[in-house]
Amino acid sequence: MQGLLRIGQVSKLYGISLDTLRHYDRKGLLKPIIDPQNDYRYYSLEHLDILEMILVGKYIKIPLDQMKERIDSESIDGYLSMVKEQKERINEEKKLLNQLDQYAEDILELLTTISKFKNDYTFSTASVYKEIDITIYRIDLETLLQEDTKSQQTEGIESLEQWAFYHSEPNGTIVENDEVIGFSFADSTINTTILQKQFIFAAEHNIVAQHHVTGYYSNIMFWGVKKDLMEYLYKLCCHFNLHDSALLVKY
């Protein structure tokens, strides 16, 4: 047929398979002209315009059924609205990817630090004071495990800082409060808006307790197992004479 392209030519021109074009035909998205004499499929320039719309829509992840609905309506406004909606979703994905990139960078930095890290038993690094302003949400483990207060899955990726609470007794003994656990949100935390609101709501209803830490504090890093940590905390408290003091440990 003059002025028309065969299905194989369209396949090569756009770098898509024959099966893909046949799939669009079956879905009613792109119905070719059928030669009744040989059942060959042919495509006009108008078909190619529609195909380009489909391929662009597919690339930006617009569902085929949604594209078919807008294409069938033959309204440019409908297609324009669909692309605008998808552009908003793409911007949200870009934001998430940027956060993921920062999160991966933080993990790489942490792992690099750990690979070269040695515990400081002179405690010289603890002499550096750092300004801290953080809210830790304390929750009883028993409450956390109750069926009616289990956290519900929310959209996105969530990453929380976990805290444990220790106390140095007047006699130097280190005691862990293993009945509670703490959570906080780092600046690089990904998509935690919904989860953070849930914690604030829980605090307002006395399900969790807010522990606000602000001011200048010395901090020190440690790498090891629980038994070694207890010994390290004991030596640290003895070194600085920290008796009857609260110790916060972030994992």
Automatic annotation (TrEMBL):
Domain HTH merR-type: 4-73
Entry keyword annotation includes Metal-binding: no
Organism: Clostridium botulinum CFSAN001627
Keywords: DNA-binding, Repressor, Transcription, Transcription regulation
Pfam families referenced in this protein's UniProt entry, alphabetically: MerR (PF00376)
A GO term for molecular function: DNA binding
InterPro entries per record: DNA-bd_dom_put_sf, MerR-type_HTH_dom, MerR_fam
Protein name from the UniProt record: MerR family transcriptional regulator
